[in-house]
Amino acid sequence: MNATATIRMDRAYFEAAYRHWLEGRSRWRKWQPWIGVVLLVAAVAVALFTRFRATAVVLLAFSIVQGAESLFHRRHWVRDRLRARGGEDRVVTLAFDDEGMRQEGTEFFVRVSWSGLPRPIEVPDGFVLLVGDGASIYVPRDSVSPPEAFAEILRRAGVAPQDPLGNEALSASARS
Length: 176
Description:
Blueprint (H helix, E strand, L loop, with lengths): L2 E7 L1 H14 L7 H18 L3 H32 L5 E7 L3 E5 L4 E5 L7 E3 L2 E5 L5 E5 L3 E2 L3 H9 L14 H4 L1
Antiparallel strand pairs: 1-2, 1-8, 2-3, 3-4, 5-6, 6-7
Helix pairs in contact: 1-3, 2-3
């Protein structure tokens, strides 16, 4: 198998990468808006039904902080990634072959065997490779060439292929 994925790391890429990180990797940040809502409801309940007005104010403050943080975190995360690249788009090439994956950029070269790659997370429009302690690479489906190699990459990396009629993974016997 010989396939490549050429990824242009621009604003759209980082926004999609953040969305997939939030849905698939984040442990608590995806719940942050709901935590803010629960704290707001608790603050209102405490203010209306108890004498602990100071507690209600503290809960309200925490609610505002959680809500603001959830709104601004994505924007800051994307902006920080773009600034780290000097505001310029960078192109990264991932090459997949029988031995594994090779990653090339303007300042680095990495080679990882299939057995050294952690299981990627498949998302509707690509997959996310987990490459280190918290580090990940989002690979859009349309960046893989040839397109038919996409399923083979996921198979070799340990992800069950998707059933063409639904979203459930095929059984292990169907993959053999």
